[in-house]
Design goal:
Strand content: 35-45%
Oligomer: single chain
Helix content: 25-40%
Shape: flat
Number of domains: 1
Order of helices and strands: EHHEEEEHE
CATH topology: Alpha-Beta Plaits
CATH class: Alpha Beta
Radius of gyration: 16 Å
């Protein structure tokens, strides 16, 4: 089964972390990804540009409405994702617990992927 690990972090807080620490965290992310790839669990993933670059699309009265910025006002913003193969939710959570930004106050949402039949 595939799980999407959605990595969220407060962007303002991220900017307050010294650059050397941010670089270290990103190196850990690289090692995390490499270990998942070596285990055959890793399917895809990416770091996203800041939420200020987001564009949100809605539909109102049958017409598209495009606005700048993210849809939701939240404390944490989606910063990246990992798509992993796991035998079950417990294994997905165990993998998610290794994500480096957790110890810095990050949040990881673990969600099973449903494929259309």
């Amino acid at each position: 089964m595939q799980y999407l690990l959605l990595c969220c972090f407060n962007e303002d807080r991220w900017q307050r972390i010294p650059q050397s620490e941010r670089d270290s965290i990103m190196r850990e992310y690289g090692e995390f990804q490499e270990s998942l790839t070596a285990s055959g669990r890793y399917r895809a993933g990416a770091k996203l540009a800041g939420s200020h670059t987001a564009t949100t699309l809605r539909e109102q009265a049958g017409k598209p409405v495009v606005t700048d910025g993210p849809f939701a006002e939240t404390k944490e913003q989606l910063g990246g994702y990992h798509l992993v193969d796991c035998k079950d939710l417990d294994e997905a959570i165990a993998i998610a617990r290794r994500i480096p930004t957790l110890r810095e106050g990050g949040v990881v949402e673990v969600r099973p992927v449903e494929f259309a039949h």
